[in-house]
Each structure stands twice: as structure tokens, then as C-alpha cells.
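Supplementary Note 3. Input sequence used for the single-chain structure prediction.
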Amino acid sequence: MSRVGRMPIKLPATVQVTQNGNVVTVKGPKGELTQSFDPAMKITVDHGELVVAAPDAPGYDAKHGLTRALLNNMVVGVTEGFKRNLEIEGVGYRAELQGKNLVLALGFSHTVVYEPPAGISFTVDKNQRLLTIEGIDRQLVGEVASKLRSIRPPEPYKGKGIRYAGEQVRRKAGKAGKAGTAK
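The predicted structure, written as C-alpha cells, is reproduced below.
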């Protein structure tokens, strides 16, 4: 049995869980999430707790923990939501919002316009260097952050580009120069 899978998930009073076969829907104050799971997993709601039970067969320990983690992410998402912060580093690099769309100036000859998928919202600080991605679906928030980072990943010489908040970019030394070479 999975240690993660055995832990029950506490359901706040504002969260409703409905189940139709192997499809689970979680409704909360921030929205609604639906996901299908392995039919062998037994998902039950007991006394305000969500409990996942796996069959006693090989290969289900990992699915047990995964199912519980995904359900927990759904409950946390509809109650609190998820955030991912990105930092923009470089002279002239900036981000701004035009309506819901994100407009990035990243040293290209053109600006990059990124339209958020449904359920994702952006906020940009006043210095236009810190970008926050918010949503209720943890996987979608991480995917959008990864796509934005891939537009201009941080380069190792000057560190310019888009990076996750707190990410350490490994820096390289530049050219050695011509010091010491005499003819």
C-alpha cells in the first residue's frame, strides 16, 4: 500500500465531491474540476474525508498515491488555487497586460503576445519584471509557466531571459580575452 495513498483528504465545508463511475467532479468556491481515474481505484467520501483504496494487486501502489495526489490537488485548487511566479531578467525585457493577453518584450524584433487558456489569469507587477500565473488546475498552471519560460529561457552568460522565481541560473565565464599573448 502506498503511504501517500493511505492518507485521507480533509474536505472543507465549501467543497462538494460527486462521482459518476471513475469520473470525479470537485466543486468549490473558485470553480469546478473534473477528472477520470483508474476504475480499479475505490474513491469514497466518509464523514468529510475523501479516501482512496487500491486493489491488492501488483502495480497499483504507484497509482494509489497518484490518484490521492491528483484528488488532493483538485480539492486545493477549488479552495485556494495555485500560483507560479516568473521573473524577467534583461535590459529592455518586460511584460504587460493588454486585456487578458500577456505582451512580452524579450529582445526579439517583435513583441510576443500570449493568450491565456481558459481558467488561467496573469498579473504583472508595476516594474514589469515579475509575472504571476494563477489558476485552479495545478497541471495547467505549471504547463503555462513552462511555455512562457520556453519563449526565452535564461541564457548562461548574462542570465537574460524568463526564469522561475528563485531559480538559480548556472553562469559561465565569457571569453578569456587576449591577456598575456605577446608577439
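The mean pLDDT is 91. The longest strand covers residues 82-89.
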